Amino acid sequence: MTKRYFATARTEIEPHLPARVTRMLDLGCGEGATTAFVKAKRDVQWAGGIEIMPDAGKAAEAVCDRVWVGNIETMRPDDEIAPGSLDLILCLDVLEHLADPWSVVQRLSPLLAPGGRLIVSVPNIRNWKFIWRLLTRADFNYTKAGLLDRTHLRFFVRHTAAALATSGGLTLAAAVNAHPWPISDGRGILSKLTFGRLDDLMIKQFLVVAEAR
Fold this sequence. Notes:
Blueprint: H1 2-7, E1 23-27, H2 33-41, E2 46-51, H3 54-60, E3 66-69, E4 86-92, H4 101-108, E5 112-123, H5 128-137, H6 158-165, E6 171-177, H7 186-193, H8 199-202, E7 205-211
């Protein structure tokens, strides 16, 4: 499972990619699978990656032009990247693991060029399964993976995830279900029947897109 986590491309970001991506930064790049995916979709000339796990970071060097290995909260890779020089910054399932993700977003946001995008993915603490367990069993036990991953330090709902992504002065472009349900899925049917009013109770993960103007 760990290997798959670090080596899986996050293809759900494709609809939200800027039309032009020549320079990008992937925070929590793993082995570089998502960076490689973006390169296949856009004409990327330079890609940087930041990864806390040394083995994964080493593997990412095959895809990224520059890889910083370590904790973004104690590193300053942004000192090596010119302001306004990036078209895309990815923070996919990373920010909830940080003590102060707002400071990180505020540091990285100025690196985006006009029209550049920050794409953030975070789990949704408002998911009904968590609420049900909390209400009926007082269950707030941390686990090896999932919503209550024991390495999660911060928790978000839709509007606080949007506030995080825009805390560096970017403009909100989207805050949506990271994995939209097909109409054949019961959740998709329920969403249609309730005009989306129950979506925030069913969504497991938000994809938030913020843009530099």
